[in-house]
Each structure stands twice: as structure tokens, then as C-alpha cells.
Amino acid sequence: MGQRFSSPKDEHHQELASSFNEYFKKFKLESKIIPQKTLASIELNLSKGNIQGANSSITNALKEIESTPLDVAVTGESGSGKSSFINALRGTGHEEEGAAKIGVVETTMERHPYNHPKIPNVVFWDLPGIGTTNFPPKDYLEKMKFTEYDFFIIVSATRFKKNDIDLAKAISRMKKDFYFVRTKVDSDLKNEKKFKPRTFDREKVLQQIRSSCVRTFQENNIKQPPIFLISNNTLCDYDFQILMDKVVNTLPEYKRHNFMLSLPSITRAAIERKRQFLEQRIWIQGFAFSLLIVNPSQTILMNKDVEDLRKSINHYRAVFGVDDASLQGLAKDWQVSVDQLKAKMKSPHVFETTKEETIQERLSRLYEEFRLAKGDVFAKNVYVKKMFYLKYSFLDMVTDDANVFLREICIKNNLVRLGSCPGGSRPASGTFGGRPGSGTGGGRPAGTCEVAGTSGPAWQGTTRGLPRQQGQLGPACNTQSRLPHYN
Ligand code: GDP
Ligand code: MG
Fold first, then answer.
1. What is the mean pLDDT of residues 311-316?
2. Using a 6 Å CB cutoff, which residues line ligand 1?
3. What is the value of pTM for the model shown?
4. Which of 31, 157, 238, 239 has its CA 20 to 30 A from that of 390?
5. Ligand nearest the Cα atom of residue 155
């Protein structure tokens, strides 16, 4: 008596809540794209059967993800490499339209915005160096509208100056984050090697650069912040990826999503992290979709669905730097045709009509293949499954394509250790006309690619989201989706 039995409906709601919770549990806090508080409130609504409430929180969260702006201030003396760094972050070649002009002595006191070409909500602001303006730090920050930035990057090509440190102190008092970036370490290494060929020790030189930067902080009696050594010419080497990981981990969830997607895919780990971010978005969209399914008997994809799917794959391709525009740039750099590049890829062919298969037939085949390979990982409704399994399948395809190029870049630059590049061991033939890799890297742990000193092609920075010159790969990671089961 008095015992309350749960109805099948209650059980269904509990199931929804627990599958929601289970899904997000598998991501580390710093890789989640929705704040923990919001996730908890959605879960609570689901468990209480407040489906409308849960759905509207999800819709709002998705809107926040799409629309939250991110503004990054890059400051430092003229010639320190600010514009080069901004181009590298935007994946824009220096000679491309819309690139920040490099090697130009600063004459303007104005800040200049550069939108990310693929993720326009991400804006990099090129600020005149504080030394150029002659303003004291507080006035400088006010003139530069410091409240509008999410964080600052203070760039120097030599030792940091008292100016830089005073600026950092002022930024910190204004409760904003900042990062110190020491550029041009490739030049330092090259010079050291040239002048001391017999005693040259790469790690020692890097350590000396770090120590020299640290001294300025000690002289100014402040606790030493981390200093990131980078080369704008070889992004994948040195500390660039470490810096980006630190920034992504520190940003609030909604900001981190766009920033992560805007970053160049220069390591296998970076590609995998992007994949995880996008996977979460697909999952939660599919989850919300299945909550409010209007016509449960619908199984066929309509024209608008096919259009939606086409947009999705194009978005993934742009984010990973394997879209048509990026391929054209790469083809030019590598002196091959776009078709030769596409022949190595899967994603550009999904929406191509062929004699053998209509697009609808191909989508049905891809859906079945995904379902057979992964099992039932999502809602029971066939229509929802079709839409979202296909999106997962596209994401896997694009991730694979991005890894194929990363691997090609390693091979072309003689950076590869056998078996360490994405996709396993090196093919016996069929690279994009690049010279074959020697398969020997020197002095790096297994699982990394190595930049062959400064003797590689004169590529600079990144091209449209893909690295032009490739180095260190992250720890081995699996490009296969690890999807949870949700019934
Ligand atoms: P800004 O005045 O701070 O915007 O500096 P720029 O980006 O215009 O760079 C000034 C010069 O330094 C240009 O000739 C760049 O090619 C060069 N440069 C920038 N970053 C690097 C780097 O990391 N390594 C090397 N070797 N040269 C760099
Ligand atoms: Mg500049």
C-alpha cells in the first residue's frame, strides 16, 4: 500500500535522462561544448518528463554555440609577427585576398579586425604595439577597447619588454586572460645552427630562449607566466598546439566550440578534437529532433533533408580544411590537379551524381553501411536515424580525408616515421607527386612526425585550415566514432 509504481512513461523519461547523461559523461569537462549546468538542467527536465523544457534548453544551447562571438586581441611590437600569426590562425596564405599584410611597418594607431574565413564569429584583432602608441598600459587598453576581447596574445620576437609586462599586469587587473607568445624561434635555431654547427643542440637553444624570456619577468618581480615558443612558418612544431589546447581548455564552453573549429588541423589530436566537438553537436541535435518527432511513420528523406545533409558535409569539409576552395589552394601548392586530390578522398563524392547510383541510393547505402558497422546508436525512429547516422558518417569521412592530407604533408616533407602518420603506415606509392618519405625521423618519440629542420619547401603557416608544413602529430587517436547506444 502507498507504494508508487512508475508508469512506462516515467520509465521512458528516466531512460531519456540517463542516456543523455551517459552520452556527455564520456567527454572530459574541457571538451564539452555545453556548460555542465545546462546539461544538468536538461537532464533534470527529461527525468521529470518536461520534454518541452528540455527541448527548448537544447535549442537555446545550440543557438549559443552557433552565435557566440569570440574576439582575440593580438598585440606586440611592429615586426614581432602579429600579422603572420593572425594569418596562420586564420589558415590564410600571406598572399591571399583578405590576408593581414606582413612585413609592413606600423603607421596606424588603429586596431584592425580579421574575421576567420570559415567561422566568421571568430575575429582576430591586430592591435598596434603599445610601444608604437606611446600610451601607458591603462590608456592603451581603453583606446583599444579592451572590454571587447575574450583574451589577449602578447607577441614578441625577442625578449619581452617591461612594456609587455606592464600591459599584461593591466590586462590581468581587468580580469582578462593573456598569453605570451615568442615568435620566430625557427630563425633563432637556424642562426645558432649556422654559427655553431658543431655544438648546436636544438633543445638547449629553445631552453635558452625560454630562460631569456623568464629573466624579464623576474626582473619585474612577477610570477612567470607560461611562454609559448612558436614559428609562424612551421606552426605544427614547437608550442603552437600546446598554446591552442590551453586556450580551448580555458575558454567558456560556447566560445571554445567556435574557436576549436576555427583552428588549423595541424595534428591528428587537433583533428580528433574537432571531430569530438562536431559529434556532440550532431548527437544533441538528433536527440532534440527525436524528442519532438512530428511524423513517426516517416522514413523517406525529403529534398529539404538532402539539402540539409549536403550543407552539413560542406560545413565539415570547410571546418577541416578539405572543402573545394582549400583543395584548389592545395592543388596549386602541390602542383597537382584538384581531381587528383579528390581521388584520394571520400567526402567530395557523396553528392556527385553517377550512372551507377542516384544520390538517394547512395545516401541509403551509406546509412546502411553506418548502421551495420556501428549498430543502433541512436533513436528508434528510422527517419531520425537516417538523418543523423548520415551526419555521423559524413563526419567520419571528412575526418578521414583530413587525416589523409595530414599524412601526405608528413610524407611530402619527409617528416614521417613509418606507421606514425594518420591512417597507419605509409602507402608504397600514390602520394600526390611529393617526394617519398624516408621513414626516419630523428630524436622524437614514436607517434610524432618530425619537421625536417628548415629545409622543407618555403611554405608558410597554414593553408585554409590545413597545414602547409607539417610536424608533430598528437598522440595516437582513433578516427572511428565511438558512439553511445541510445534507444
Ligand atoms: P607585425 O609587424 O608584428 O605584424 O609582423 P609581421 O607579421 O608583419 O612580420 C614581420 C616579419 O617577420 C615578416 O617578414 C615575417 O615574414 C617575419 N616573421 C613573422 N613571424 C615569423 C616567424 O615565426 N619566423 C620567421 N622566420 N619569420 C617570421
Ligand atoms: Mg602587422
1. 97
2. 76, 78-84, 102-104, 183-184, 186-187, 231-233
3. 0.83
4. 31
5. 1
